[in-house]
Specification:
- The complex is a heterodimer of chains A (506) and B (135).
- Chain A is α/β, with parallel strands linked by helices and 506 residues long.
- Chain A has 15 helices and 25 strands.
- In chain A, strands 15-18-19-14-13-21-22 form a seven-stranded mixed β-sheet, sandwiched between helices.
- In chain A, helix 12 links the parallel strand 18 and strand 19.
- Chain A starts with 17 loop residues before the first strand and ends in a 9-residue tail after the last strand.
- Chain B is α/β, with parallel strands linked by helices.
- In chain B, a hairpin with a 2-residue loop joins strand 4 and strand 5.
- The radius of gyration of chain B is 14 Å and the shape is globular.
- The termini of chain B are close together.
- The chains are: A alpha/beta (506), B alpha/beta (135).
Chain lengths: 506, 135
């Protein structure tokens, strides 16, 4: 079936003409009165205006957050958890609407937003509603009269900058732990994909006390920077690329505040010879695993964009994998049969095509794809790219740089040591995949690959309660796990003497 | 005024459209700099910031100077790019990190060429201008 396009008669999604900021529980127009056009990558055409925020708007949001922080921080964990659960409930009741909006805003297939983005985001709120109830400090008896207490406190007001590849899910990843831990938030959505988050807050915003969650829209340089640089935040969380990550750390150093950063990767997907040992379900699972580079049009920080295949099975495995990958073609994102949607923006598509160009110039062999796809009709100007498979070697730039598109670069390895060496020959260390029938192999290689997550005989699963974050240039901190609460908490130590007698010092 | 060594051969060049955009951005924001970003959503792309906004690291490498703007890349990343030349171009787009051009509805991107053998030998024989060099 095909969902009706937003703003058309009969669609589940009817956007207003424009979205303002959401500050102190109200819709607030931008201080300078400016808006920008938000384009749907499905059609390449604008569909809504978005507030173009500046530092005045950020300050207003920070005012609201600071006014709310004492009350929210003192709200019992049980009450905060109840609100997070209510947010999850409302999202569940509006799942289809939010899924259609997310597909329209980002270009990803509705099949994914219905089955993954929204269910995972909903579960994330429930997970942190759960773990905050069990979160506790510690107490230790140092001697008969001296006790040390460690009490968890919220940081206060935090800034969060959200990427465009999973707008709602990444917002949930950051918001749920921050709110659960008792912080107030000023959040800036990506300027490429602000609409779904604003639709979301129009549904759930009233569940939170005023000022606890504030959303300022706008461009990075005009709204993101004043937020990241503000001395009025106690922490900044960012998902994006390495140089902006460095810039944000630099701003944070001015204010001596912590950061969490998730900065991408060039994830290896390692296929050992034994995956081909039998023609069975597991072989098909491994072949499916190769195709995971197409998930979300490759616009995933953990896109398995380097496939490393053991030499003895290289040709046979790759032939089968390419044959299978060719079954996936770009299509209408709102059609439930579509597995590959549109790239999120025109510049993103152009960047992917420029990498396909340099791949060919460097002498990589193009096995499939390699071009923009025009779908015709209403979708003619949408940003569609054919899934692309290159063969080459690991020193090529297409093996070293994150393309952020449905492009995989394939090479072979000789043995386990070679596989580990190739896998680690990258600046990044966010994700990795490995496929083998040997548990010994799986454990050794999984431990040796320098990446925050090694999917073993699976890929692209993002359940709450599995810590996610990077080694090396891929970032700092972990998300998706109750340890994330620690990233949003201060530790208060009370060191208490119960001895009524003087110490005898003076 | 930079005292970095003269590179002779520049590893980055600029299209007319990108040069025009740089000139406009300089009018609005003053002198600018570029840094070649790695990784994730808006990465593998040039970032354009007000000059001096970004604290250069000791090992960052200057690829060249375009329209008066220095173009830098991280030292580790440079090692993986050293055999290519970059051409800075601009396309219609929407946003990217804190890059200055985003509100204009355009986005800088790079196109890449392989260095010729002659260019590679020039590159191998020159001092590499680093962020930590005295200035």
């Amino acid at each position: 079936m095909r969902y009706v396009s937003p703003n058309s008669p009969g669609s589940l999604v009817q956007y207003p003409d424009r979205y303002d900021h959401y500050i102190n529980g109200e819709w607030v127009p931008p201080a300078r009165g400016r808006y920008f056009e938000n384009v749907s990558p499905v059609t390449g055409r604008p569909f809504i205006q978005i507030a173009r925020g500046t530092h005045e708007d950020v300050e207003r949001a920070l005012d609201a957050a600071h006014a709310a922080k004492a009350g929210w921080g003192a709200t019992p964990a049980a009450a905060r958890a109840q609100i997070l659960n209510r947010i999850a409930d409302v999202m569940e009741q509006n799942l289809e609407q939010l899924a259609v909006s997310e597909s329209w805003d980002n270009g990803k297939p509705i099949r994914e937003t219905l089955a993954a983005d929204l269910p995972l985001a909903i579960d994330h709120f429930r997970y942190f509603a759960g773990v905050i109830r069990a979160n506790e400090g510690t107490a230790a008896e140092l001697d008969a009269n001296t006790v040390t207490y460690h009490i968890k406190e919220p940081l206060g007001v935090v800034g969060q900058i959200i990427p465009w590849n999973f707008p709602l899910l990444m917002a949930a990843w950051k918001l749920a732990p921050a709110l659960a831990a008792g912080n107030c938030v000023v959040l800036k959505p990506a300027e490429q994909t602000p609409a779904s988050i604003m639709l979301w807050v129009s549904l759930v915003g009233h569940l939170l006390p005023k000022g606890v969650l504030n959303i300022v829209n706008g461009f990075g340089i005009e709204a993101g920077k004043p937020l990241a640089q503000s001395p009025r935040i106690s922490k900044v969380a960012f998902t994006g690329e390495t140089s902006t990550g460095r810039l944000i750390m630099q701003y944070a150093s001015e204010n001596i505040i912590p950061v969490t950063l998730e900065l991408g990767g060039k994830s290896p997907n390692i296929f050992f010879a034994d995956v081909m040992a039998q023609d069975d379900a597991f072989r098909q699972k491994a072949l499916e695993g190769f195709g995971m580079f197409m998930l979300n049009q490759g616009e995933v920080c953990t896109c398995p964009s380097r496939a490393l295949i053991q030499r003895s099975i290289y040709k046979d495995f790759l032939d089968l994998a390419v044959e299978r990958a060719k079954l996936t073609v770009p299509g209408d994102p709102l059609d439930t049969n579509t597995k590959l949607g549109a790239q999120a923006s025109n510049d993103q598509l152009e960047k992917i095509l420029s990498y396909i160009d340099i791949g060919q110039k460097e002498g990589a062999t193009l096995r499939m794809g390699g071009e923009r796809v025009r779908l015709g009709g209403e979708l003619e100007d949408g940003y569609y790219c054919a899934p692309t498979v290159f063969e080459g070697h690991n020193k090529m730039r297409i093996f070293q740089e994150e393309i952020f598109g449905p492009v995989v670069s394939v090479t072979s390895f000789e043995d386990e040591a070679d596989a580990i060496s190739l896998a680690n020959d990258t600046l990044y260390g966010l994700g990795a995949g490995l496929w083998t029938r040997s548990i010994h192999n799986a454990y050794r290689v999984g431990r040796a690959v320098q990446a925050g997550r090694v999917w073993t005989n699976c890929y692209h699963l993002y359940p709450a309660h599995a810590a996610f974050g990077g080694y090396k240039h891929s970032g700092i901190g972990r998300e998706n796990h109750h340890m994330m609460l620690g990233h949003y908490q201060q530790t208060k130590n009370l060191l208490v003497s119960y001895d009524p007698n003087p110490m005898g010092f003076f | 005024m930079s005292t970095l060594p003269d590179q002779g051969f520049s590893q980055v060049s600029v299209t007319d459209a990108a040069a025009e955009l740089i000139r406009r951005l300089v009018l609005d924001h003053g002198p600018v700099m570029f840094f070649q970003s790695g990784g994730c959503c808006d990465g593998s792309a040039p970032m354009c910031w007000p000059k001096g906004e970004f604290r250069l690291g000791e090992r960052d490498v200057r690829l060249g100077v375009i329209e008066g703007a220095e173009y830098w890349i991280g030292g580790d990343q440079y090692e993986r790019w050293a055999h290519t030349r970059l051409v800075l171009d601009v396309v219609p787009g929407r946003g990217a990190g804190f890059s200055l051009e985003a509100p204009e509805g355009v986005r800088f991107i790079i196109r890449s060429e392989l260095c010729s053998l002659d260019e590679l030998s020039q590159l191998n024989n020159r001092p590499l201008p680093r962020g930590g060099d005295p200035r």
